[in-house]
């Protein structure tokens, strides 16, 4: 079912079961991320973030581009004052802090802000044609929505420095080898694999999935002992949730769980 009732111009949205898919749709500009794209992605994703009927969100583009970065034409008319006063990228921080699990499905270019957008998602799936890069250095700037931090945490200092300082693109197998993406599939299978992964995540109790996700994210923030304490608190807390009782009872009764 196509759900374009919001009147978005730069994205397409589709709900299938408990999965919301947001497709970036500025094909002529290789899905370059301008303010309108940000506004529409953030609006749509925020509305559904607290919707109990949405258990997973998918972000994708088209075969040629996931997103070729921030819109350079829009960036090039900014100055220090406009960037600073408007906190130009703050909306992307709000996007990153949404709590519903997010899956990025990448074909073609995921460059600059496009690579950073993918890294704000919890799972990155790539087609064999995907190309990742942080080429900002080539246009006289640096990654601005988390690339220097998230890429380094994901792939380590050596590969992050290599990509960010040379601006080179890496292909999907290399992205998988360094740990940037979790799966690489043929182009024609990307949609079905993504929907399958997202539907699987969305089939589990949303509160439990959010807790698991929060624990994994905590590992990026704190040292091992603090992370273990956080995990243990979450683990104890989930015994207050119906999903735990139903999931374990169903296993013991040898029947499928009825989560919702
Ligand atoms: N911004 C604006 N327009 C773009 C962008 C972009 N990032 N990328 C491509 N386009 C446009 C081109 O201008 C062109 O438009 P037109 O047809 O009107 O001339 C159209 O898309 C097609 O592009 P090309 O003709 O260049 O296509 P090619 O196949 O020859 O090349 C490339 C494809 C290699 C992807 C090339 O387009 C390219 O290098 N693009 C720029 C990549 C880049 O530098 N990305 C980083 C941008 S800076 C950034 O992301 C900063 C991050 C900080 C915050 C992010 C917040 C969102």
In a nutshell, what does this entry contain?
The chain has 260 residues and is of the alpha/beta class. It is 46% helix and 16% strand.
Q: What is the overall silhouette?
A: globular
How many structural units, i.e. domains? Answer: 2
* DSSP helical segment count: 12
CATH architecture label of the largest domain: Alpha-Beta Complex
Ions and ligands: octanoyl-coenzyme A
- Averaging pLDDT over every residue, what do you get? 96
Tell me the total number of β-strands: 10
Broad CATH class of the largest domain: Alpha Beta
**Structural classification:** alpha/beta
Helix % is 40-55%
The oligomerization state is: single chain
Task: Note the main attributes of this structure.
260 residues; alpha/beta; 2-enoyl-CoA Hydratase, Chain A, domain 1; four-stranded mixed sheet; 46% helix; binds octanoyl-coenzyme A
How is this structure best described in words?
The chain has a six-stranded mixed β-sheet with strand order 1-2-3-5-7-10, with helices on both faces. Helix 6 (147-155) packs across helix 7 (157-166) and helix 10 (206-221) packs antiparallel against helix 11 (224-237). The chain has helices spanning 35-49, 72-75, 80-85, 90-96, 113-119, 147-155, 157-166, 172-177, 190-203, 206-221, 224-237, 242-252; strands at residues 11-16, 19-24, 56-60, 65-67, 102-106, 109-111, 123-127, 131-133, 170-171, 183-185. The chain starts with 10 loop residues before the first strand and ends in an 8-residue tail after the last helix. The protein folds into two domains: 4-202, 2-enoyl-CoA Hydratase, Chain A, domain 1, CATH 3.90.226; 206-252, Orthogonal Bundle (Lyase 2-enoyl-coa Hydratase, Chain  A, domain 2). The chain is an alpha/beta fold and 260 residues long. A hairpin with a 2-residue loop joins strand 1 (11-16) and strand 2 (19-24). The chain binds octanoyl-coenzyme A. Octanoyl-coenzyme A binds next to helix 2 and strand 6.
């Amino acid at each position: 079912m196509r759900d374009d009732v919001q009147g978005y111009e730069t994205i397409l949205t589709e709900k299938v079961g408990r999965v919301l898919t947001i497709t970036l749709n500025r094909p002529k500009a290789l899905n370059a991320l301008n303010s309108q794209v940000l506004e529409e992605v953030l609006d749509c994703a925020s509305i559904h973030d607290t919707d109990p009927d949405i258990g997973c969100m998918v972000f994708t583009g088209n075969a040629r581009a996931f997103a070729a970065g921030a819109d350079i034409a829009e960036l090039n008319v900014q100055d220090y004052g406009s960037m600073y006063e408007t906190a130009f990228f703050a909306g992307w921080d709000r996007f990153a802090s949404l709590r519903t699990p997010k899956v990025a499905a990448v074909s073609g270019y995921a460059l600059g802000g496009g690579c950073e957008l993918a890294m704000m998602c919890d799972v990155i799936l790539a087609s064999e044609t995907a190309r990742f890069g942080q080429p900002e250095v080539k246009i006289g700037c640096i990654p601005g929505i988390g690339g220097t931090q998230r890429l380094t945490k994901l792939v380590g200092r050596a590969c992050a420095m290599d990509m960010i300082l040379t601006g080179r693109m890496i292909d999907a197998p290399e992205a998988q080898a360094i740990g940037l993406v979790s799966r690489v599939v043929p182009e024609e299978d990307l949609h079905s694999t993504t929907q399958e992964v997202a539907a699987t995540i969305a089939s589990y109790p949303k509160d439990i999935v959010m807790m698991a996700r929060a624990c994994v994210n905590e590992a990026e923030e704190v040292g091992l002992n603090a992370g273990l304490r956080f995990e243990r608190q979450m683990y104890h807390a989930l015994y207050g949730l119906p999903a735990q009782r139903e999931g374990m009872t169903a296993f013991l009764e040898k029947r499928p769980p009825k989560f919702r």
